[in-house]
Amino acid sequence: MATYNYKALDCITSCDIEALGIPSKLAEQLHEKLAEIVNTHGAATPATWQNITTHILSPDLPFSFHQLLYYGCYKDFGPDPPAWIPDPEAAKVTNVGKLLQTRGEEFLGSGYKDPISSFSNFQEFSVSNPEVYWKTVLNEMSTSFSVPPQCILRENPNGENHLSNPGGQWLPGAFVNPAKNCLSVNSKRSLDDIVIRWRDEGDSGLPVKSMTLKELRAEVWLVAYALNALGLDKGSAIAIDMPMNVNSVVIYLAIVLAGYIVVSIADSFASLEISTRLRISKAKAIFTQDLIIRGDKSIPLYSRVIDAQAPLAIVIPAKGSSFSMKLRDGDISWFDFLERVRKENEFAAVEQPVEAFTNILFSSGTTGEPKAIPWTNATPFKAAADAWCHMDIRKADIVAWPTNLGWMMGPWLVYASLLNGASIALYNGSPLGSGFAKFVQDAKVTMLGVVPSIVRTWKSTNCIDGYDWSSIRCFGSTGEASNVDEYLWLMGRALYKPVIEYCGGTEIGGGFITGSLLQAQSLAAFSTPAMGCKLFILGNDGCPIPQNVPGMGELALSPLIFGASSTLLNANHYDVYFSGMPSRNGQILRRHGDVFERTSGGYYRAHGRADDTMNLGGIKVSSVEIERICNAVDSNVLETAAIGVPPPDGGPEQLTIVVVFKDSNYTPPDLNQLRMSFNSAVQKKLNPLFKVSHVVPLPSLPRTATNKVMRRVLRKQLAQLDQNSKL
Questions:
Q1: Is a pLDDT exceeding 70 seen at residue 727?
Q2: Cα distance between residue 198 and residue 359, in whole Å
């Protein structure tokens, strides 16, 4: 958004305001208020904008008016204008604020001032004093171990060479069950507290449904007993491939409670993708639905599971109690599965060593086969700790984040809510329409998580217009790069509550860079490394640039991250994350693969992937996977390169297919038709959510001396073309 097109605030007239479609009398009143604020705070200060959001702007005023004031205020501000500023009194009652009020001097000594001024110092303390920080936060979350850890971190377990285990050993000796912690009664909650709120699509006229902790415990215990009745070995992998609804959350918790391992499979996957994940994880059973119902559409799911040659399936009807198809021999209906047991008493949680696996999730690598990433019993507490500190999730909060258990944000939502005494809010339907917007209003959601593509749809369709989102305390955003203008619009829907950007990875179990309610937040930017994380930006020579110096490059992490992965099921963990990385202070740095910029204002901005993995709509995918499909679409195609290109004005990467034809003189009759053919094949064979935005023919692909395609070079060239509006 070009701010030079906007007038400075002290140059705006009531006629300018009226020109935006605002009635004359109201335009005069708004102009009077604006003049008062400018007179008191100046025409271009953060305090000016803060007062404008409090006293002038509301969701029912045209967004063009919001833009007029935001871009006018920050016209000449420079980088990272703050869209939200913390209030000192409100900061004191956040989770971190309360902790620092009581123990700030103990942690930080005489340098401690107040929660806002000392937040960055506290983040650094969390890195340099993991023993104190993590003991404190686990205690704040009322974490219960059946056997407590001998210490928080052992950097060189059993005298091992640091290179063999760069991440150290966390909570050595501890035995714990994360699901048991989700279901326990403690200072944060009682049995009568509501822990899940939900609504099915099409039920907007009905009250929001709810489940208490007492009811959730009974349901989870019943499923756990029924799981044991299947006779599987303890530690067996059990897949879930279904929408994120009350049933799938109950199943997830029951699998973990009973000492099995969840295999996370997204409900959008084609049968080949399901089959790959079942094979890698060696899953012994799978929970699924017969259909996914979205509006008036019924999308087959069980048939995809059968085509994937899945093991024993427990099948849940999407509607009512009957199925639309006959079950495969040996498969069990949900009702028959539960009928096998009738236990009312508490299920004894299976307590396991902290390093035992609890969940297998998948993230695309550059080889085409997805990386199988195990979460240990420690990882859920990393997810919950991020939520406790950065999104300030606590008792009485209601947390919604449209996602699926197949992606890390699904399990994250379960643990971030329940381990912090909050309630999960689930909408069983598409989040893209007014039904979801009304659910957020009716459920009184206090923390709403989004991905930028959802926000873009809301803004373009205006489907949330008229709904009251004033209960929201903050937004969370993850999955892909966000756009300043779209997120200004989003903040305005909830009376300018902050957006906490959140970037991490499945292998991290949460975030490594994010925001905080104790820091000013700038749109589409990150204000802080996550608690316990230290970041490095690698310069062109592959070495970290000095801390706090502006620059851009591939991001690397300190290896000591609580809850992060230390093994992969189908690849060498060290080779993937550490091999070839530089060292700092005797520690080899951990590879992540995203390009980040550290700005002169101290914020961070994301610039996409450094390797050949793309991020499409929040889903990481290998270029190789897409290219294999596109190469077979048209007999004239010699080879393709799949590239994620960020749009010039920011936002999520767009999938561009670069095509080399067999005959260099061949001119395709219709590039758009070829694009549609690629689109259809990718959606059918890989993921229906992916979309090919552009097709670019080239005589050849740039390659290294060892014949590897240099996709990074193509990405740079295409981004430059896009910038010049030639694409």
A1: no
A2: 24
